[in-house]
Amino acid sequence: MLCLKKKNNVKKINKIIHPEVRLKMKKFLKKNKKKAAVLLDIPLLLEGKINKKRDILLFVEAKKKDINKRLKKRHNFN
C-alpha cells in the first residue's frame, strides 16, 4: 500500500482508526461484561496500549504465506 510507505501517513491513519477501534471495543466489552470470558482479536491491543494489567493476552504466530492463504479464502477479502 502506497499510503503506508510514509510514516507520517501511518500516523494520520492511526489517528483516525485507533479511536474507532477503542470505541467499538468498549461497546463490545460493555455488552458482554457479564460473560465469564471475552475474546478480542485486535492487533491494536498491544500497539495502542489499550490492554489492562488484569487482561490475559495470547499471542498467535503464523507465517505470512499461511496468513495470506487463509485471507484469500475469505469471500470479502480482495
Helix-residue proportion: 40-55%
- Tell me the structural class: mainly alpha
Rounded Rg? 15 Å
Please report the total strand number as a whole number: 0
Q: Give the mean pLDDT.
A: 80
Terminal CA distance reads 13 Å
Overall shape: globular
**So what's the oligomer here?**
single chain
Low-confidence stretches: none
Count of helical segments? 3
**Main β-sheet, in a few words?**
none
Describe this protein with a few key phrases.
mainly alpha
Topology, please?
Layout: H1 7-31, H2 44-47, H3 64-73
What does this structure look like?
- The model has no long low-confidence stretch (mean pLDDT about 80).
- About 0% of the residues are buried.
- The protein is mostly helical and about 80 residues long.
- Helix content is about 50%, strand content about 0%.
- The chain starts with 6 loop residues before the first helix and ends in a 5-residue tail after the last helix.
